[in-house]
C-alpha cells in the first residue's frame, strides 16, 4: 500500500473585522505595543537582531500579559484559518490533516534594528495579517493535482 502526502505552506489572510469578533484584544494595538517593547529592548541591549517572541518569556522587564495577548490572537487566527481551509477543501478530500500551524509573529522577524523603517516592519511582523499553514493530504495523483489547482485558486480568493 502506498501512502501519498502533499505538503504545502499557505499564507492566509483573515479580515480584521472577523478577527475582532474572535479576540478580546485589538490585534493591531497588540502588534504595535509588542513591536515597541521588542524594539526598545533590542536597541537598549545593542542587539543586531530582533529575537523571537519566545525569548521574551524569560525577560523580566517585558510585560508577560502582552505576550499572552499575542498568543491569544495567534490562537484565534490559527483556529479561523484551519476552519476555513477545512470547509473549503472538505468537499474534495476525505482527509485533511494539519501537521503544524504557526503564526508568523512567532518566527524570527526578517528585519534588523539598523535597517530603514525597522520599527514599521516590526509592527507589520507582529500584527496578524497572514498565517502560514502546512497541509498534508493522502490521495491519488488526480486528487493531488486537483488539490494543487484548488490551492492556487484559494490563494487568490479573499477568505472572508
Descriptive overview:
The chain is an alpha+beta fold. The chain has one domain. 48% of the residues lie in helices and 12% in strands. Strands 1-3-2 form a 3-stranded antiparallel β-sheet, covered by helices on one side. Helix 2 packs across helix 3 (64-89) and helix 2 crosses helix 4. The radius of gyration is 18 Å and the shape is elongated. The relative contact order is 0.25.
Helix content: 40-55%
Beginning-to-end CA distance, first to last residue: 39 Å
Runs with pLDDT <50, length 5+?
130-140, 142-160
Overall number of strands: 3
- From the spread of the alpha carbons, the general shape counts as elongated
Mean pLDDT: 75
- Structurally, the number of domains stands at 1
For the biggest β-sheet, the strand order reads 1-3-2
Largest sheet: 3 strands, antiparallel
Into which percentage range does the β-strand content fall?
Answer: 5-15%
Helix-strand string: EHHHEHEH
Per DSSP, the total helix count is 5
Estimated radius of gyration: 18 Å
Structural class: alpha+beta
Amino acid at each position: 500500500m502506498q501512502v501519498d502526502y502533499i505538503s504545502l505552506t499557505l499564507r492566509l489572510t483573515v479580515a480584521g473585522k472577523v478577527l475582532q469578533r474572535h479576540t478580546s484584544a485589538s490585534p493591531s494595538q497588540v502588534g504595535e505595543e509588542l513591536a515597541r517593547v521588542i524594539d526598545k529592548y533590542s536597541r537598549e541591549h545593542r542587539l543586531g537582531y530582533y529575537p523571537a517572541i519566545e525569548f521574551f518569556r524569560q525577560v523580566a522587564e517585558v510585560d508577560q500579559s502582552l505576550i499572552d495577548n499575542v498568543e491569544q490572537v495567534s490562537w484565534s487566527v490559527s483556529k479561523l484559518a484551519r476552519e476555513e481551509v477545512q470547509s473549503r477543501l472538505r468537499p474534495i478530500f476525505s482527509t485533511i490533516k494539519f501537521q503544524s500551524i504557526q503564526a508568523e509573529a512567532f518566527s524570527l522577524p526578517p528585519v534588523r534594528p539598523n535597517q530603514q523603517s525597522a520599527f514599521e516592519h516590526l509592527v507589520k511582523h507582529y500584527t496578524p495579517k497572514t498565517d502560514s499553514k502546512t497541509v498534508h493530504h493522502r490521495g491519488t495523483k488526480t486528487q493531488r493535482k486537483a488539490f494543487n489547482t484548488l490551492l492556487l485558486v484559494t490563494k487568490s480568493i479573499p477568505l472572508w
